[in-house]
Amino acid sequence: MRSAPQTFGRKAEAQRYLALIEAQISRGEWIDPALGKVTVGDYAARWIDERAGLRPRTVEQYRYMLRRHIAPWLGDVPVGKLDTPLVREWRAKLLGDGVSQTMAAKSYRLLRAVMMTAVNEDRIILRNPCRVRGADKEQPKERPVLTVAQVVRLADAVPRRYRALILLATFASLRFGEATALVRDDIDLVAGIVRVRRAHVELVGKGLTVGPPKSRAGLRVVSIPPTVVEAVRTHLVEFPNVGGLVFTVPSGAPIRRGNLNQLLKWVKTVEALGLDGLHFHDLRHTGNTLAAGSGVSTRDLMSRMGHDSMQAAIGYQHATAAADARIAAALETALHAENAQAGEHKDQADENGGQGDDDGDGGASGVPIPAG
Fold first, then answer.
1. Residue among 131, 281, 318, 345 flagged as catalytic
2. Are 238 and 323 found together in one domain?
3. C-alpha dist (Å) from residue 273 to 231, 260, 287, 290
């Protein structure tokens, strides 16, 4: 038995309400109001804990967004009371408080996923209230893409111990955690390949851990150019760590994001090269862009990048100034050839007394053109 949310002044009003509820039940659309009393904060926290298959780093990020960007505004709101205007107001407050559009979009997508479970699986609410147009879209700043010459200069500028790291991260399209987790057996210098089988992940309270790559597609084999193979070969001779990590700090410990700047003198080095603001991840971005420019298929690019999403790979297949210049050059070659051919025809016509063909009949295929 369930009570209506309010009393009615007349019996006819109560009967109309009952008829409405019975119709919803018959259509399978009735939602028990008692279920919607759970708060957004409690429901979302349980959703994260019970979500199977999430990587530890993803769980950490979800908990951070819930704690920092969702719970302070919506945590005490009952799920059944959450509506689109309230979601829109929450997003506006995030952006107004200086939260980046990227983080606001990530937080919105998390809330939408949680509410989708409330709709489809737990039947707590009838419709997902996260229906704000464009709220899930990120507009990150365009990251820099280095030229091959700039990558080589950067590799030569960092301490020699990390030269091969720069080249491999770029030309094998490796993430930082993937590159720093490589062990000797992951690299085949004869075949010229790198096997990506694990990645370093730093978790709050747990420190540096070793886990699988970012996605299932992250488990991959990547071919590397012979020049990079030689750089890695030299590195393994000069800085041997038999059976252990390929790239380490001088003590043999793993490289961590926190000490990357100190080890590579990153900020000073990139500024000296005129690459202010360059991030280590931009090396992978550069490698992906260069790979896309080689004319490979989207599927091949996805495999090399370690992406499950085709959209992510397509994003690297955008037009570049260099590609556009090559197109213009090809068009110029075609125009030049056409102009040269036209000049030959003109010279030939002049030799024939101004006629455009040997027969002098004006026909396209030697057929006389009828007069009138």
1. 281
2. no
3. 21, 18, 19, 20
Query: In angstroms, rounded to a whole number, what is the distance separating the alpha carbons of residues 65 and 168?
Result: 33
| pLDDT (tens digit per residue) in 303-359 | 787 766 655 555 565 544 455 555 566 676 777 777 777 666 666 656 555 544 444
- Closest by CA to 281, choosing from 159, 180, 210, is 180
The token pair at 123 is 């039947």
Q: Is the pLDDT of residue 362 over 50?
A: no
Catalytic residue chosen out of the listed positions 163, 175, 198, 200 = 175
Task: Establish whether 281 is a catalytic residue.
Answer: yes
Q: Which amino acid is located at 326 in the chain?
A: R
Is residue 256 domain-shared with residue 193, that is, in the same domain?
yes
Residue 367 lies in a domain: no
Q: Catalytic residue, from 62, 108, 162, 316: name it.
A: 316
Q: How many domains does one find in the chain? A: 3
Identity at 211, one-letter amino acid code: G
The reported pLDDT for the residue numbered 308 is 63
316 part of the active site: yes
Inform me whether the pLDDT recorded for 288 exceeds 90.
no
Give dist(CA 267, CA 277) in Å, integer. 8
Q: What is the mean pLDDT of the chain?
A: 82
Asked whether residue 220 carries a pLDDT value surpassing 80, the answer given is yes
Q: Is the model's pLDDT at 245 over the cut of 90? A: yes
Dump pLDDT digits (tens) for 129-139.
Answer: 999 999 998 87
Parent domain of 350 = 319-355
**Closest to 178 in 3D by CA, of 143, 209, 218:** 218
Question: Does the structure show a pLDDT above 50 at 183?
Answer: yes
pLDDT at 30: 62
Burial of 155 (0-12, 13-18, 19+ CB in 10 A): buried
Q: How far apart are CA 106 and CA 108, in angstroms?
A: 5
Residue tagged active-site, from 91, 220, 235, 284: 284
Could you say which DSSP state residue 81 is in? Answer: G
Reply yes or no on whether 318 is catalytic.
no
- 196 and 258 in a single domain? The answer is yes
Residue 202 has pLDDT above 60, yes or no: yes
Judgement on whether residues 234 and 159 belong to the same structural domain of the protein: yes
DSSP conformation letters of 33-46: TTGGGSBHHHHHHH
